[in-house]
Amino acid sequence: MKEEILRDVERAVLTLNVNGEPAQLLVPVHKTLLEVLREDMQLTGTKHGCELGECGTCTVLIDGKPHLSCLVLPIQVEGRAITTVEGMASGSDLDPLQTAFAEIGAAQCGYCTPGILLSARSLLEENPRPSRGEIKEALAGNLCRCTGYTKIVEAIELAAGRMA
Amino acid sequence: MLRLPRFKYLRPRSAREAAGMAAEKGARAMFVAGGTDLYPKLKRRQFEVDTLIGLDFLGHDIRNGSTECVIDAGVTLSAASRDSHLKGGFGGYAEAAGLVSSPPLRNAGTIGGNLCVDTRCNYYDMTYEWRKAAGFCMKKDGDICLVAPSSPRCWAVSSSDTAPMAIALGGVVTLVGLDGERELPVSALYRDDGIEYMAKRPDEVVTSLRLRAEPGLRSAYVKLRRRGSIDFPIAGAAVAARMEGDTIAACRIVLSAVASYPLDAEAACTFLKGRRLDRETVQEAAELAAKPAKPLDNADLSHFWRKRMVRVVVEQALERLSDQPGGFDS
Predict the structure, then answer these.
(1) pLDDT tens for residues B159-181?
(2) Same domain, yes or no: A67 and A134
(3) What are the distances in angstroms from CA B159 to CA B117, B184, B217, B273?
(4) What is the ipTM metric for this complex?
């Protein structure tokens, strides 16, 4: 452990495509995408949870598919499209999923919400009218400790209905 | 916060170049593909390396031929679980890939990575601070096995879902190392040791998996875990059988998560050969298959219960074979 902090930090200049905008960054290669988004880009909508790939609260989309940003190195996703919760709304227009979550009250503490919104966005892009079982399967990697999921699933169904 | 340790990240353009880098760096370097198991273990300081060698060059194709299917090692588990040819011809393999961890991790994890995934143990898969407080084990930083203190070896558990299924299907991996390319049956890829669990050389990269199609081939995988959405297996059964009419011409049953390597249930396969898959046969075969499984108290839930459940998962997997076209009528 002690020897670790004596090692040189390797840094790389990376161009990350986040929410449709290229960002050039000088980052240590051992920083995770979650850390870079939050600490270097101030995109704090992506939440810090278990950091071990179990809770899903740090979910972002990479080329449209949900990934856990706590287990992704930025150097591995250079040039790929990264979407965070900040990229869901366009201007003042919320994504239909965000509107549905707000209307139904599909959040209590809200900590898991960004990750769940992005998993749901990916699902609806691939399958615009998912069954309840398909919604549950798509959210299987996102833990919510407050709501019990009922309103979350209802909000996704409401958004899917409006988007169809 | 759990931060990754400082490391250098190398980006080879081919498996041969990666093998050269691994040979040069030795034990201080590791390959990384999806990283879904490696990064948590680096954060918990279970691995101590200063260099990662990225396998981003690995292919992402599934090539379907009339007699075989070749899956590039860089294919993600989610892609393998959804591939129509795999689902049709090697259903058990697609099932196993689709049961690994959770959807976002399957979008990153690769089939090559799951074949090489580290063995697990309740005393090992913990943070550095937890392990320091409890006392280190021989797999990392210590010198005894905390599960079986009088044992000279490590009993960490093989935790791959796809490896048992690839073995049951007679899969063969292509390895590329410093000495060139070679093929190895997946069954020869593992050792009965929780620490040195892989038989491939450290410089060798798994570049593809080849599954051979056979007429009458059926397969199924059943996995036991606490949380159906995410956990590693605590027991599992991979079954592949070649049917001639309603009779089993050949069969292989491989158990997951009950030993340090995917465990062949040979007696059950010998028993099944030449028999019809009726209910009594399934039950007797499941009893035989469960006998070699001797889980220890080093994974989730009680190991006594896990032992009892091995028979159940084998029975369920054999029943799943029966449910496929031409199955027995119960």
Answers:
(1) 999 999 999 999 999 999 999 99
(2) no
(3) 7, 20, 25, 28
(4) 0.96
Range(s) of the domain holding residue A100: 96-163
For residue A147, name the pLDDT band (cuts at 50, 70, 90). confident
Q: Are residues A24 and A83 in the same domain?
A: yes
Q: Which residues of A touch B230 (CB under 8 A)?
A: 54, 140-141
Integer Cα distance of B165 and A50 in angstroms: 30
Picking from B11, B107, B128 by the largest number of A CB atoms within 10 A of its own CB, the best residue to mutate is B107
Condensed to tens digits (0 to 9), the pLDDT of residues B181-212 reads 999 999 999 999 999 999 999 999 999 999 99
Query: Total structural domains in chain A?
Result: 2
Instruction: Spell out the domains of chain B, with CATH numbers in brackets.
Output: 216-330 (3.30.390.50)
Residues A6, A67: one domain?
Answer: yes
* Residues of chain A positioned with their CB less than 8 A from the CB of B39: 32, 53, 70-71, 73
DSSP state of B138: T
Helix (H) or strand (E) segment spanning residue B308: helix B303-323
How would you classify the pairing of strands B205-212 and B180-185? unpaired
Buried b (16+ CB within 10 A) or exposed e, A9-31: ebeeebebbbbeeebebebbbbb
pTM over 0.80: yes
For residue A66, the cross-strand partners are A61
Same domain as A121, residue A55: no
- For an interface test with B, which of A14, A51, A57 has the most B Cβ atoms less than 10 Å from its Cβ? A51
Q: Which of A87, A116, A145 is the last residue of a domain?
A: A87
Q: What is the DSSP letter of B102?
A: -
Output the CA angle B322-B324-B325, nearest 5 degrees.
110
Give DSSP secondary structure letters for A34-98.
HHIIIIIS--TTS----SSSSS-TTEEEETTEEEEGGG--GGGSTTSEEE-GGGTSBTTB--HHH
Beta-carbon separation of A68 and B4 below 8 A: no
Of A31, A52, A87, the residue that ends a domain is A87
